[in-house]
């Protein structure tokens, strides 16, 4: 375990730490702290004075807002400087503004919580931290320097004390630098929602994965449709022609009928396969039509009551289709239900879906691999699935997915 | 009967196969096209007795063929159209039936082509203003209407499905091995039980049943 912060370095190897780069880094950190803090103090004092003086005529808001925005610069500098004493990665908590231009940038920054944390930290630096930096540096190096400079016969204990202080200075400086670094980190790292960027990145890659699955599925479906299916139809035509050529009571007709039956089975199987892959009606007419079609083919009666203001996004549509599909398949397979219901509504940016059956209940969503995969898909879209299935039934599967219509 | 047909199908193999079939039984294919735009152009240039078209075609490879068919029926009322589909999609079939009052339309699975005699009968029925619906579609529709149909006997349900497909009384009698009188009796019972107007015949009867199944 290589130490990643000044404090860890100090705690892990107190002796070899002396010959490492950490004391020097800490020294650089504190010296920089004095410079940045002093500059910030000066700048803020002037800005605050100007702002308050001008506030009477309202223009003062500009310098005050300027101070707030300037603190984001301080925040950035402090994050950069933090690398001296803290090697752990630190991402920028600020988001990119929605649109280009300085105005959008200012509004975005003023709305962000992290901007105000940076302001607090800047004020703290300006008001006290840099003094403390100076104090620690002064104590560690200034005091020994003074004792050495004014050394004579009677003050030797002071000189000894100065020497001890100087020898201990790497520890003193690193201790304070570590503390200051930890403080800076708590103020300047992204929190909660500010981590969103990274989470969204993960989510984006998940949804890219979903997209590539869907695209692949569509491709296979197209290949089957354009290839195998067409050939089978063509084969059927040839058989039909053959039937026209053969006299009706020839022994060949029996074989022909057999061939036709086999062909018909092949057609049915291929159709079912293709429908499972990528139902054409979904692409053409959307979720409601596709589910109604699916319900029409279903072995038990399914009441479909889906109302959506318009077509969903392709990804959401596909996910919801397979989800309903899988849920109904599970109902038919395991629940012993005699009827099922699919109810869906959209309101306030949420799509709510209830799938209800009158089966025997006791469904364990963790058991079906199909359902787990779907739960993952739904999670990738930020939604969630809940199952309510007491023993004896009925079973309710509830899905909530955020969905926005552009 | 010899018909002048326009065939629209993007797969060359099937297009040629269809042309061969039609010419073999004495129809004339006046144009064979491979996409929806060309289909509309061909129909506007030379109005045929019947269009036979695929659903999924260029340019967009969605339901372009079906859309063109619906558009053409609006433009030329009464233009008979038979749509051949790789899929049983109820919504496709129903959209087609909604165009031009459902007279002279057919929606069949492509694979039905191999039963040449039946297929040719369907072609003629559509060309003369009848309605033909694939049995698979009817199966779906019937399944959706479990409740009211429970009043019917299994035999009556069979008859109803065949009516909905667009079968004539003679066709019904042949497929069910019944006399036409028996068929008529079944039909009367069905229409009574479902409160459908009894005086309908021909394709209006088909449409009445379809309308019931869709309600």
Automatic annotation (TrEMBL), chain A:
<keyword id="KW-0812">Transmembrane</keyword>
<feature type="transmembrane region" description="Helical">
    <location>
        <begin position="119"/>
        <end position="143"/>
    </location>
</feature>
<keyword id="KW-0808">Transferase</keyword>
<dbReference type="InterPro" id="IPR036890">
    <property type="entry name" value="HATPase_C_sf"/>
</dbReference>
<keyword id="KW-0472">Membrane</keyword>
<keyword id="KW-0418">Kinase</keyword>
<dbReference type="GO" id="GO:0005524">
    <property type="term" value="F:ATP binding"/>
</dbReference>
<protein>
    <recommendedName>
        <fullName>histidine kinase</fullName>
        <ecNumber>2.7.13.3</ecNumber>
    </recommendedName>
</protein>
<feature type="transmembrane region" description="Helical">
    <location>
        <begin position="155"/>
        <end position="177"/>
    </location>
</feature>
<feature type="domain" description="Signal transduction histidine kinase subgroup 3 dimerisation and phosphoacceptor">
    <location>
        <begin position="216"/>
        <end position="282"/>
    </location>
</feature>
<keyword id="KW-1133">Transmembrane helix</keyword>
<feature type="transmembrane region" description="Helical">
    <location>
        <begin position="52"/>
        <end position="74"/>
    </location>
</feature>
<keyword id="KW-0067">ATP-binding</keyword>
<dbReference type="GO" id="GO:0000155">
    <property type="term" value="F:phosphorelay sensor kinase activity"/>
</dbReference>
<dbReference type="InterPro" id="IPR025828">
    <property type="entry name" value="Put_sensor_dom"/>
</dbReference>
<feature type="transmembrane region" description="Helical">
    <location>
        <begin position="27"/>
        <end position="46"/>
    </location>
</feature>
<dbReference type="GO" id="GO:0046983">
    <property type="term" value="F:protein dimerization activity"/>
</dbReference>
<dbReference type="GO" id="GO:0016020">
    <property type="term" value="C:membrane"/>
</dbReference>
<dbReference type="InterPro" id="IPR050482">
    <property type="entry name" value="Sensor_HK_TwoCompSys"/>
</dbReference>
<dbReference type="Pfam" id="PF13796">
    <property type="entry name" value="Sensor"/>
</dbReference>
<dbReference type="Pfam" id="PF07730">
    <property type="entry name" value="HisKA_3"/>
</dbReference>
<feature type="domain" description="Putative sensor">
    <location>
        <begin position="29"/>
        <end position="188"/>
    </location>
</feature>
From TrEMBL, chain B:
<keyword id="KW-0805">Transcription regulation</keyword>
<feature type="domain" description="HTH luxR-type">
    <location>
        <begin position="145"/>
        <end position="215"/>
    </location>
</feature>
<dbReference type="InterPro" id="IPR000792">
    <property type="entry name" value="Tscrpt_reg_LuxR_C"/>
</dbReference>
<dbReference type="InterPro" id="IPR039420">
    <property type="entry name" value="WalR-like"/>
</dbReference>
<dbReference type="Pfam" id="PF00196">
    <property type="entry name" value="GerE"/>
</dbReference>
<feature type="domain" description="Response regulatory">
    <location>
        <begin position="4"/>
        <end position="125"/>
    </location>
</feature>
<dbReference type="GO" id="GO:0003677">
    <property type="term" value="F:DNA binding"/>
</dbReference>
<dbReference type="GO" id="GO:0000160">
    <property type="term" value="P:phosphorelay signal transduction system"/>
</dbReference>
<dbReference type="InterPro" id="IPR058245">
    <property type="entry name" value="NreC/VraR/RcsB-like_REC"/>
</dbReference>
<dbReference type="InterPro" id="IPR011006">
    <property type="entry name" value="CheY-like_superfamily"/>
</dbReference>
<keyword id="KW-0597">Phosphoprotein</keyword>
<feature type="modified residue" description="4-aspartylphosphate">
    <location>
        <position position="54"/>
    </location>
</feature>
<keyword id="KW-0238">DNA-binding</keyword>
<dbReference type="InterPro" id="IPR001789">
    <property type="entry name" value="Sig_transdc_resp-reg_receiver"/>
</dbReference>
<protein>
    <submittedName>
        <fullName>Response regulator transcription factor</fullName>
    </submittedName>
</protein>
<keyword id="KW-0804">Transcription</keyword>
<dbReference type="GO" id="GO:0006355">
    <property type="term" value="P:regulation of DNA-templated transcription"/>
</dbReference>
<dbReference type="Pfam" id="PF00072">
    <property type="entry name" value="Response_reg"/>
</dbReference>
